[in-house]
Amino acid sequence: MAEGNTSAPVRLEGKYGAMLVCWVLGNGCLFSWNSMLTIQDYYIALFPNYHPSRVLTLIYQPFALGTLAILAYNEAKINTRKRNLFGYTLFFIATFIVLVLDLATSGKGGLGSFIGICVISGAFGVADAHVQGGMIGDLSFMLPEFLQSFLAGLAASGALTSSLRLITKAAFDNSQDGLRKGAILFFAVSTLFELLCVLLYAFVFPKLPIVKYYRAKAASEGSKTVASDLAAAGVYKQGPETKDEHDPQQVERLNNKELLLQNIDYAIDLFLIYALTLSIFPGFLSEDTGSHNLGSWYALVLIAMYNVWDLIGRYIPLIKCLKLESRKGLMVVILLRSLFVPAFYFTAKYGDQGWMIMLTSLLGVSNGHLTVCVLTCAPKGYKGPEQNALGNLLVLFLLGGIFAGVTLDWLWLIGKGW
């Protein structure tokens, strides 16, 4: 798609409504998983011998990565509407089951409960692969602001869950069984939020005029993935300006291999961003930063600071002069982030909590900023079906980086007797 065609006609309405819905749907993509990460203090108390902050992440990622690899390979044939609705519905059901499991076992630990939590973690991974790849692919052929809003929503889910966790911890800190009460409230809120996302995607998002315009445009360029969403919006055929769908010039598109070769630097960028970030967050921050004045609040504060600054970082590219668009520049900055590893090691060993909080904030802001820069720059210049496919491929590398990161995170335990 030519860059000159990226702006919708002025008459179309719903741009800011669509941005808001994208932000909420981005939240829903990671809200349940971030809820599980953010109550690690509860799970560490419940399962002290199983390293839940590391094990749950390690289980989540293969399911997310394996499912997305299958979905990305078959992306051109998959009904995007069914894919995204399945993902959000699975998030809703799995989050509800976490709540039921805790209530059914009366908050008792043990191997059986831990295995149940691990199975739910795997379900979150499957749901994430459906939603994150599906939504980023879908939004890649719309306005860049929609994709930025969705990515900001992903980060906002972390900031919101951290804020909610701090509130519930403060509210129940002095009560009997306070950790558990806070966790139950936490997952009740998460369950309702995931239900909201199902309803928004099913009934609100496809009917916004600007969304209908971009989906119809993608269909005119040969995309078959948008048909159900267009039908849900009452669009069953294209307007008179639409090209003949059997025109070979119109449906001809680069295949996945060609797209990947043209954008291999962007794919490597995302892999490296998340491999580095997840090798530190949340496992290292939860278990390896020592004891400080903040006591049991310390890990929660670190995770909250990361999440807040990750969110801020995702809004920085809206300031055009601060958006990094040079492909070489992106790679250089991403490689320089490897300096975070020795910085965190020495800060944990010799620094005080103020330095660790500052370092965690820098990790978050760089993660958010670079993610938005890569994912909004890469789709430029392609047709709708190619942008959808590229979005899926880039998310596959992003999840690959997360999997590599959570695996590397175990290296911090070397020499610690486990």
TrEMBL record:
<dbReference type="InterPro" id="IPR036259">
    <property type="entry name" value="MFS_trans_sf"/>
</dbReference>
<feature type="transmembrane region" description="Helical">
    <location>
        <begin position="354"/>
        <end position="378"/>
    </location>
</feature>
<feature type="transmembrane region" description="Helical">
    <location>
        <begin position="329"/>
        <end position="348"/>
    </location>
</feature>
<keyword id="KW-0812">Transmembrane</keyword>
<feature type="transmembrane region" description="Helical">
    <location>
        <begin position="390"/>
        <end position="413"/>
    </location>
</feature>
<keyword id="KW-0472">Membrane</keyword>
<feature type="transmembrane region" description="Helical">
    <location>
        <begin position="184"/>
        <end position="205"/>
    </location>
</feature>
<dbReference type="GO" id="GO:0005886">
    <property type="term" value="C:plasma membrane"/>
</dbReference>
<feature type="transmembrane region" description="Helical">
    <location>
        <begin position="266"/>
        <end position="285"/>
    </location>
</feature>
<feature type="transmembrane region" description="Helical">
    <location>
        <begin position="111"/>
        <end position="131"/>
    </location>
</feature>
<keyword id="KW-1133">Transmembrane helix</keyword>
<dbReference type="InterPro" id="IPR002259">
    <property type="entry name" value="Eqnu_transpt"/>
</dbReference>
<comment type="similarity">
    <text>Belongs to the major facilitator superfamily. Phosphate:H(+) symporter (TC 2.A.1.9) family.</text>
</comment>
<dbReference type="Pfam" id="PF01733">
    <property type="entry name" value="Nucleoside_tran"/>
</dbReference>
<feature type="transmembrane region" description="Helical">
    <location>
        <begin position="297"/>
        <end position="317"/>
    </location>
</feature>
<protein>
    <recommendedName>
        <fullName>Equilibrative nucleoside transporter</fullName>
    </recommendedName>
</protein>
<feature type="transmembrane region" description="Helical">
    <location>
        <begin position="143"/>
        <end position="164"/>
    </location>
</feature>
<keyword id="KW-0813">Transport</keyword>
<feature type="transmembrane region" description="Helical">
    <location>
        <begin position="55"/>
        <end position="73"/>
    </location>
</feature>
<comment type="similarity">
    <text>Belongs to the SLC29A/ENT transporter (TC 2.A.57) family.</text>
</comment>
<feature type="transmembrane region" description="Helical">
    <location>
        <begin position="85"/>
        <end position="105"/>
    </location>
</feature>
<dbReference type="GO" id="GO:0005337">
    <property type="term" value="F:nucleoside transmembrane transporter activity"/>
</dbReference>
<feature type="transmembrane region" description="Helical">
    <location>
        <begin position="16"/>
        <end position="35"/>
    </location>
</feature>
